[in-house]
Amino acid sequence: MTIMLNIDPRNPDKAKIAKAADIIRRGGIVVFPTETVYGIGANALNPKACRKIYAIKGRAADNPLIVHVSSMDMADAVAKIPDKYKKILKRIWPCPLTIVAKARDSVPKVVTGGLNTVSVRMPQNRVALRLIEESGVPIAAPSANISKRPSSTRASHAKKYFDGAVDAIIDAGSSRFGIESTIIDTDNFMLLRPGAFTSAQIEKEFGKKPRITEESLGLKYAQRPKSPGTKYAHYSPLTPLFLFDGDAKSLKRITSVFKGKFVFIGSSESCMELRKNAKKAISLGKKRGMREIAHNLFHSLILLDSLNADFAIIEGFPEHGMGLAIMNRLRKASGNRSFESEKELRILVGGHG
Ligand code: AMP
Ligand code: MG
Predict the structure, then answer these.
(1) Which of 54, 81, 97, 191 has the smallest CB count inside 10 Å?
(2) Percentage of the chain with pLDDT > 70?
(3) How many angstroms is it from 111 CA to the middle of ligand 2?
(4) What's the confidence (pLDDT) of residue 227?
């Protein structure tokens, strides 16, 4: 049975946190909020508990879990973080930045997917921090979604995925960022995954730019990537999703032959344009409000699957700031199926008629 724990993020109820922490200590599974997305968590030092996460999510065994900590000491106990980075992390954590470093022997191989490195993060969410503190152990937690599906940004999403399969779900409202953490490899300062912590913030705090590859942009699936998760399809709704990569002004004309057949997801400005052609238009927010667009993205992809559309079109966004992470998710959610013209859209729809 899954118990639901409603917790006010401004004033976390001690008894409810204690209950969830007790489940973690006993080797159980708790879905909990973070500022990025909801996580499905277990005691990171208990291999049997961590194995359950893979089984519940249907996650590939070589796709490692992020270890969530509530203090620098806890991070030190799981990872050998180089001193120069530790100094910076002491200053900027908690924040949506995950670092990959050499793992200590205490970290079970199931957590690292067999690698000798481990990824660590201190979440900027009071409920998450209290839960880790009260548990007294680091918590391994990937995003709370069935593998390949969109991540949960609300407890209701996680309930749809995991009701009956996990021991508890904490509901503390919607995730502030709505997009996963940024992952940096401390070994070569490569951006393994763009996320809620922007490249400009990294440059400001670390004094250097991260190395960005086609893999980190989601343009390519590598066979033997540095970050195993990047080789898998991800974030996809069940409804076929196509990414529009062209000028938003031409979209109304391009889609006119598919009137009433598709759901449109995009900026409020483009929703106004597309309203008449689409079966439904889901607004992510104003074009310039990239944080709000990120915040609403996964909710919209989950909502899409309840609308019974033949297919959906999602609008692309400029690839700077939060846009880098947004476009990485859109490329993956659409399986890199993008179009710029009516002809290209016809071909994509033809494959899904
Ligand atoms: P999720 O928690 O579902 O957002 O997925 C965690 C992501 O972190 C996956 O893409 C993993 O490949 C990546 N990751 C976790 N640990 C490591 C590691 N030791 N080295 C490289 N990537 C990692
Ligand atoms: Mg995930």
Answers:
(1) 54
(2) 95
(3) 14
(4) 67
Q: Which residue has the tokens 């709000």?
A: 292
List the domain range (segments joined by +) for residue 172. Answer: 3-217
Tokens of 120: 């660590």
Q: Are 333 and 236 in contact (CB under 8 A)?
A: yes
Which atom of ligand 1 is the closest one to the Cα of 180?
A: 4
* pTM as predicted: 0.95
User: Same domain for 195 and 284?
Assistant: no
User: Rounded mean pLDDT of 66-94?
Assistant: 98
What six digits make up the tokens of 170? 């904490």
What is the rounded average pLDDT of the residues 187-198?
94
CA–CA separation, 353 and 296 (whole Å): 28
Token couple for 7: 């917790």
Provide mean pLDDT across the span 230-258: 88
Model confidence at 223: pLDDT above 60: no
Ligand nearest to the CA of 41: 1
Instruction: For residue 222, tell me if it sits in a domain.
Output: no
227: in domain? no
Task: Please state the atom number of ligand 1 nearest to the C-alpha of residue 59.
Answer: 3
Ligand 2 centre and the CA of 280: distance in Å? 27
pLDDT, tens only, 322-352:
999 999 999 999 999 999 999 999 999 987 6
Pocket of ligand 1 (CB under 6 A): 63-64, 66, 100, 112, 115, 117-119, 142-143, 180, 183, 192-193, 226-230
Which of 179, 185, 227, 332 has most ligand 1 atoms within 8 Å of its beta carbon, as the pocket-test mutant? 227
Other Cβ atoms closer than 10 A to 281 = 20
Ligand in closest contact with the CA of 60: 1
**Do both 168 and 265 map to the same domain?**
no
Mutation probe of ligand 1 site: the residue of 34, 54, 104, 119 with most atoms within 8 A of C-beta: 119
Residues 6 or more apart whose CB falls under 8 angstroms from that of 333 comprise: 150, 234, 235, 236, 237, 241, 301, 314
The CATH number given to whatever domain includes residue 283 is 3.40.50.11030
